[in-house]
């Protein structure tokens, strides 16, 4: 079985802390039942942060699952958050840390202007010798990866899935660097639902906006009526989104995951577009077949 896991976006789990705590616990239970080894909790809005007491409970409740918390390095309170997490991660044998520069959507204006590399390096300097398992989200750091790998050789590079950039994964894995891939996925869901789910995500990329502008009158997702698009326009959007997401039948998804694995991924973390137990178990069945 390939090493794999589930990514969780707590913003999907309600607007109250109580709802997020309850559903994150349920999600971790599903991860354990599916036989997955990793549960990565994404960095989003501040209200979606995992408090240390909740992290401790997750680690104690599910010892077979490695719970990985994500810290956005450009947040002004990133160092404070890290100081709270590190003692728990040091003590537990089933915890991990993911450091990312931070998505502009979730950052304040002053935070967006901070240098991604310098912000990440500051956190790596604090955590590197104390945390044994660190994933580094590489988006926005591509030009500094050689320097990062040289300075922090035990850090695991964590790539966002892009079918046309798997060469980067191959390059670093061939050099002996442990690499993983974060993969949005959907198994046996209608293509229209997949496009709806990922349109905002895809439109953050210039190449996709360029493609979409050829067939759409507006690039404002709230004004795009996908169900009314002509087939050729829908085909352009679906083709672009298929570059960023693994979707299709179970066998089609399995083949795409095998391709990712063959490019050197030592672990694959899937973000289910529809966050259901069925999708998590189906993803796990793919990994067990690899």
Number of DSSP strands? 9
Beta-strand share of residues = 15-25%
Per CATH, the class of the largest domain reads Alpha Beta
Biggest sheet features: 8 strands, parallel, barrel
Please identify, by name, the CATH architecture of the largest domain: Alpha-Beta Barrel
Range of helix content = 40-55%
Whole-number count of domains: 2
Task: Look at the helices and sheets and give the structural class.
Answer: alpha/beta
Write the layout of secondary structure elements.
Elements: E1 4-8, H1 17-33, E2 38-41, H2 52-61, E3 66-72, H3 78-91, E4 95-100, H4 109-112, H5 116-127, E5 134-137, H6 145-151, E6 156-160, H7 166-174, E7 179-187, H8 191-203, H9 206-213, H10 231-242, E8 246-248, H11 250-262, E9 267-272, H12 277-288
Parallel strand pairs: 1-2, 1-9, 2-3, 3-4, 4-5, 5-6, 6-7, 7-8, 7-9
Helix pairs in contact: 3-5, 8-10, 11-12
């Amino acid at each position: 079985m390939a090493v794999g896991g589930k990514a969780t976006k707590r913003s999907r789990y309600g607007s109250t802390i109580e709802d997020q705590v309850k559903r994150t616990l349920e999600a971790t239970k599903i991860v354990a039942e599916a036989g997955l080894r990793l549960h990565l909790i994404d960095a989003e809005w501040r209200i979606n942060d995992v408090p240390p007491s909740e992290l401790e409970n997750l680690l104690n409740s599910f010892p077979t699952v490695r719970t990985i918390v994500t810290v956005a390095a450009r947040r002004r309170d990133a160092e404070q958050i890290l100081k709270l997490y590190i003692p728990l991660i040091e003590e537990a044998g089933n915890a991990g840390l993911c450091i990312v520069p931070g998505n502009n959507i979730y950052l304040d204006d002053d935070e967006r202007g901070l240098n991604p590399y310098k912000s990440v390096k500051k956190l790596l300097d604090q955590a590197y010798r104390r945390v044994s398992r660190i994933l580094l989200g590489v988006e926005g750091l591509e030009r500094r990866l050689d320097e990062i790998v040289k300075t922090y050789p035990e850090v695991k590079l964590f790539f966002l899935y892009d079918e046309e950039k798997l060469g980067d994964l191959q390059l670093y894995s061939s050099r002996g660097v442990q690499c993983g891939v974060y993969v949005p996925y959907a198994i046996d869901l209608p293509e229209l639902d997949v496009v709806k789910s990922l349109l905002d995500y895809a439109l953050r990329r210039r190449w996709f906006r360029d493609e979409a502008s050829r067939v759409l009158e507006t690039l404002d997702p709230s004004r795009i009526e996908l169900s009314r698009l002509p087939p050729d326009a829908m085909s352009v959007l679906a083709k672009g989104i298929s570059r960023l997401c693994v979707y299709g039948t179970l066998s089609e998804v399995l083949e795409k995951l095998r391709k990712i694995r063959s490019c050197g991924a030592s672990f694959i973390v899937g973000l289910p577009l529809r966050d259901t137990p069925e999708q998590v178990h189906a993803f796990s069945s793919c990994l067990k077949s690899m």
